[in-house]
Amino acid sequence: MIQLLASTRSKEYPVFLSSGSLPELGSLWRAQGKSGRVIMITDSNVAGIHLPAARESFEREGFTVETLVVEAGEDAKSLDRAAELYDELYRLGARRRDTVCAFGGGVVGDLAGFVASTYMRGIGLIQVPTTLLAQVDSSIGGKVGVNIAAAKNYVGSFYQPDMVLADPSLLRTLPRGQLQEGLAEIVKYALLGGEEFFAALESSSEGFLELDMAFVEPVIRRCIEYKLKVVAEDERDYGRRAVLNLGHTVAHGIEAAG
Ligand code: GLY
Questions:
Q1: How far is CA 61 from the centre of its chain?
Q2: Which residues sit with their C-beta closer than 6 Å to ligand 1?
């Protein structure tokens, strides 16, 4: 198991990375000295595939687990959906000692992270990214939020999770298009990281897309390490962190136009 340390002004937390590590989620959380309930927020795609293993890992450690499922897709990243989740958390009697586990891709991580950052002014948060894009980027560094009608990511906060667990074996159930989307994010890191990283990525991209873990884990690790360094320097995006938006701003424009 690879364990990295995220170190920001507001919080330090572990980032675990290992293929096949999902069943260890509960014990890793227990090892952080945590108790309270775990409220898993996931989407309709992930719920049908990986949710039972995640739930089981918490239950094996004696945690009570609740599950809230949102419809898969970008439309879930809205204030309306966040408001529904607040109501659900209230109905469940969630308190500040409880923890939201954001279990999904970028949409779920941003939405559930935003809800965790604002419900009762902030409750615990675990990020368990299930897409490549979320494993290398959105689950790390604490940017959480929702879209408004006019623009993407305009409402949100910086809210660091208490733990991140990335299990690249979960990527095996993704359509190839989603892997390519994540690989584009990795190209961003390779452009930022320099010639050697870029050349290494070019020579391993086929093995990567075949999800050969000998290629996948080291590349994901490199991206996470790069991001952790930038976020440690500039958690709230006043300067250096802007480099992480390389390609994002123009791509958001294309997405909106399309
Ligand atoms: N995804 C860009 C950032 O976290 O700053």
A1: 23
A2: 137-138, 141, 143, 237, 241, 244-245
pLDDT score for 117: 98
Q: Which domain holds residue 129?
A: 2-249
Give residue 193 CA to ligand 1 midpoint distance, Å. Answer: 15
The pLDDT, as a whole number, for residue 31 is 97
Residue 256 lies in a domain: no
Q: Taking the chain (258 residues) in consecutive chunks of 10 residues, what is each chunk's mean pLDDT?
A: 95 97 98 95 97 98 98 96 98 97 98 98 98 97 95 94 98 93 94 93 88 94 97 96 92 85
pTM: 0.96
Tell me, yes or no, whether 194 lies in a domain: yes
Report the CATH number that the domain containing residue 156 is assigned in CATH: 3.40.50.1970
236 belongs to a structural domain? yes
Q: How many domains does the chain have?
A: 1
Nearest CA to ligand 1 atom 5: 244
Q: Is residue 157 situated within a structural domain?
A: yes
